[in-house]
Amino acid sequence: MRLELEGKVAIVTGAGTGLGKAIAESFTAVGAKVVRVGRGEYADQGDWRTVDVRFQDQVDALIEAVVGDYGRLDVIVNNAGISATQGSSVEKPMENWHEIVDTNLNGLWYCCRAAIRQMLTQESRGVVINMSSRLALSAGGPGRVAYAASKAAVSNLTRQLAVEYGPQGVRVNAICPGFVPYTAGATTSNPERIALAQTQTPWTRLGLPSDVANAALFLASPASEYINGHNLVIDGGASVRS
To answer: Which of these is catalytic: 70, 110, 147, 226?
Structure first.
C-alpha cells in the first residue's frame, strides 16, 4: 500500500495538540514536509505558524508564505476546530454559536478556498482533508447544536468541493471521528464519560489519536487516489449501533 508522502508539502491546522498533533507527526514520519498551524505558540513543533483560521487574511497569507517557502502545497488537513460544552443549546449566548461556526465552518472554508486556488495552479494538484465529526451524521447530546450544525456543513461542503474540483485533479475528503478521549475538547479524563462511551462503542476500546492520524495518512496518500467526496467515519462502530 502506497502510504508514502516523501517530499510532499502538507499543512495541518490545529496541530498543537490532540488529533492535529498526531496527524502532523504521522505525516512527518513518512517523509512529508509538514507546516503546523494553530493559534498558540509551539516552538518545539518544527515549522510552526501562528494563524487564527477565523480570519481570511491570515489564512491567505499562510498559503502564500508556505508556497513561497516550499514552492507548492500538496496536502492540507483542516483540523482546527472548537468542540461543544454541555447544557441547553438555546440558553447559551450567541457568542458561543458564532465562535464555533466561525472556526469550524468559516475558518475551514477559508483554508479550503485558499488551498484549492493554489492547487489548481500546480501540475500535481493536491489533496484536501477536512475534519468533520460523527455528529455531522447524527444528533448528539444537549448543548451541541452549533457544533453538530457546523460539522454537518463541513461534511456537505466536502462533497460539494469534491464534485466541483475532482474533475480538475483536486481530491477532497473528510474524516468523521467519534469520541477520542484524552484529546483537547473531549471531556478528557472524565471516568464516567469514558465508561459511557465504551458501552456505546461496539469495539474493544475507544478511539486513539493514532486511529484518526492513520485515516488522514491514508486519505493523503496515493493509496486512496480513487476516493473523493467521502466522509470516513472513525468511531469503532458507534454510529451504526441501534
So the answer is: 147
E strand residue ranges, the chain: 9-13, 33-38, 47-50, 75-78, 126-131, 170-177, 231-234
Cα gap 28→187, rounded to integer Å: 28
Instruction: Give the model confidence (pLDDT) of 49-99 as tens digits.
Output: 999 999 999 999 999 999 999 999 999 999 999 988 888 889 899 999 999
DSSP 103: I
**Domain 9-233 falls under CATH 3.40.50.300:** no
Q: How many other β-carbons are positioned within 10 Å of the β-carbon of residue 113?
A: 15
The ranges assigned to domains in the chain are 9-233
* pLDDT at residue 187 tops 60: no
Is 88 buried (19+), middle (13-18) or exposed (0-12) by CB count in 10 A?
exposed
The verdict on pTM exceeding 0.90 is yes
Q: Is residue 147 flagged as an active site residue? A: yes
What dihedral angle (degrees, nearest 10) is formed by the CA atoms of 134, 20, 224, 53? 90
Cα distance between residue 115 and residue 107, in whole Å: 12
Burial 49-83, CB ≥16 within 10 A → b, else e: bebebbeeebbbebbeebbeebebbbbbbbbbbbb
